[in-house]
């Protein structure tokens, strides 16, 4: 085999490796997006419904307060929220409804183990007591699986 043939063979092998790496990267990204979609379907109302159905205490386990806060995230569905021409003349409350209508709203989640990828089984939701600050952690997998079962979605 000549040097030129060997070089060509190595280039072909490298191209094949690059193509396989790109496919793996795309597959990993698609899976990551699917996991994020599953987490983002959980609103504070859904989490509250889950906790009530499961018989979880609606009071702080430390101080007994019922002032529990579930942090939520709002993300724009589009780059810019479309506002009607008359937006500036709307009352503040109505402006808020227009803006909120262009946002996705879900319970803020975080990783349980920060060294691992974000997946439903490695995510948690946290509720905060507004009185004493106690944070209660709920494994996202339990909530998401319950919600998907209620919605009749196939658990993957």
What labels would you give this structure?
156 residues; alpha+beta; 4 helices; elongated; 4-stranded antiparallel β-sheet; 17% strand; 6 strands
Describe what you observe in this structure.
It is built from four helices and six strands, in the order H-H-E-E-H-E-E-E-E-H. The chain has 156 residues and is an alpha+beta fold. The chain has helices at 3-40, 44-53, 92-101, 140-151, and strands at residues 68-69, 72-76, 103-107, 109-111, 123-129, 135-139. The model has no long low-confidence stretch (mean pLDDT 86). A hairpin with a 5-residue loop joins strand 5 and strand 6. It is elongated, with a radius of gyration of 23 Å.
The global form is elongated
Count of helical regions:
4
Strand content is 15-25%
Tell me about the largest β-sheet: 4 strands, antiparallel
Annotation, overall tally of beta strands: 6
Radius of gyration: 23 Å
> Between the first and last Cα atoms, what is the distance in angstroms?
49 Å
Report the helical percentage: 40-55%
Low-confidence stretches: none
What value does the average pLDDT take? Answer: 86
- Helix vs. strand class: alpha+beta
What's the SSE pattern? HHEEHEEEEH
In terms of topology, how is this protein built?
Layout: H1 3-40, H2 44-53, E1 68-69, E2 72-76, H3 92-101, E3 103-107, E4 109-111, E5 123-129, E6 135-139, H4 140-151
Antiparallel strand pairs: 1-5, 2-3, 4-5, 5-6
